[in-house]
Amino acid sequence: MTRANSIAAGWAVLWIQDWLKVAGHPGPTGSKLTYCEGIERRQMHDEYLYSFKDPALLAVRQTAPLRYNDFRKLLSGLFKHVKFVGYKGVGLKCEICAKLTGLRRACSSKEEKTAVATLHMLHRSLYMGQRHAYYLRQVHSMENSRTVWSFISDGYQQVNSYYVS
After folding, report:
1. Collapsed DSSP state (helix, strand, coil) of residue 153
2. Got the DSSP string for 29-44?
3. Is the residue at 70 inside a domain?
4. Stronger pLDDT, 87 or 44, i.e. the higher one
5. 24: which of 18, 34, 79, 112 fits an S-S bond (Cβ 3.0–4.6 Å)?
6. Is residue 45 in a domain?
7. CA–CA dist 100, 123 (Å, integer)
8. pLDDT by residue (tens digit) across 66-107?
């Protein structure tokens, strides 16, 4: 078991916070909950492990990643406001994620499910990059509100966007 105040746990907390900025969805107005829709804790841990393959980050961290059980305990202990829910057909949600989730549920063999899960992870990594770029532009526009205006025109991120007046 990794101690909660270890260097590895500290890096995991920072990674989770960054991941939630990109992949989490805020709850209804007045709610302090963050929803992670269409992803399971195990998939989140897989993405966390994948981030350790970056040699530049590995050199900075100088520690091994947390095992799944330690990661899950850290997540449930420090991030109680995060709820993992299945995909719901709600407006402004990704249609490809919905189709891949349905396809994974329809698959009968473990190999097919693994292949679809891999496609889903690849898709998530691509659109999470897009959401991360949105997030950085929002922060930049809020920090420089007199000179920079951020507007998203594709309708994808409208719900979570901040507009500078």
Report:
1. coil
2. TT---EEEES--HHHH
3. yes
4. 44
5. 34
6. yes
7. 9
8. 899 999 999 989 988 888 776 554 433 567 777 887 888 788
Backbone angles phi, psi at 146, to 5 degrees: -80, -20
The values of phi and psi at residue 52, to 5°, are: -75, -10
**DSSP type of residue 22:** H
Calculated CA dihedral for residues 47, 96, 115, 39, nearest 10 degrees: 40
Q: Which two tokens stand for residue 162?
A: 């901040």
Supply 80's token pair.
């109680």
Dig out the tokens for 36 from the structure: 């992670």
Question: Do 85 and 35 meet the contact criterion of CB atoms below 8 Å apart?
Answer: yes
Beta bridge partners of 25: 35
Question: How many angstroms separate the Cα of 162 from the Cα of each of 86, 90, 92?
Answer: 26, 21, 16
The reply to whether 17 falls in a domain is yes
Please check whether residue 150 lies inside any domain of the structure.
Answer: no
**Range list of β-strands (E), the chain:** 25-26, 34-37, 82-85
User: How is the beta sheet containing 82-85 ordered, strand by strand?
Assistant: 25-26, 34-37, 82-85
Contacting residues for 102 by C-beta, under 8 A, at least 6 apart: none
Contact 38, 83 (CB under 8 A): no
**pLDDT of 141 strictly over 60:** yes
Q: Count up the domains in the chain and report the number.
A: 1
Decide: residue 118, CB within 10 A, 0-12 exposed, 13-18 middle, 19+ buried. exposed
